[in-house]
Amino acid sequence: MTVQTTEKNRDFHKLLKQNGLKVTPHRLRVLNEITHKNAAISQPDLEKIVGKEIDRVTLYRILSSFEEKGIVHKIFDLHGTATYAICTSDCTENHHHDQHVHFICSVCNSVYCLQEISLPKIPLPSHFTLHSIALNAVGLCDHCQKDAD
Ligand SMILES: [Zn+2]
Ligand SMILES: [Zn+2]
Ligand SMILES: [Zn+2]
């Protein structure tokens, strides 16, 4: 299974400006960390990495503004910890379109966006309105699979 990598050359300056956010070193730093690995990054891990430069409250505010603007989406890992992944470009303010499957590794707890796997259509009872579907696939990631062989 291939995991879609995020575009390395994504122009973060442009991304922030497009979303009406001021370009600040803190925001750029957080975006860099979120897109650094293939996997999503958890809030505690982000805190560990940027904690010396960015205090908790500021980090929290940055993440919630990114989420609100459609820049990142939140996935809860197996421990219920919030992890963040960059959105595809069609997400907009308060309208996320990250309707793809997320894969969570039961050994290392890494969360991957499987952009190429879209979610099934759910036939809802009448008078029900669908806003979003979350579907997590749980198993071994390629890295932990190798260790298990
Ligand atoms: Zn999104
Ligand atoms: Zn793993
Ligand atoms: Zn995702």
From TrEMBL:
The UniProt entry, under Pfam families, shows: FUR
Q: What is the top-level taxon of the source organism? A: Bacteria
Extract the InterPro entries matched here: FUR (IPR002481), WH-like_DNA-bd_sf (IPR036388), WH_DNA-bd_sf (IPR036390)
What protein name applies here? Fur family transcriptional regulator
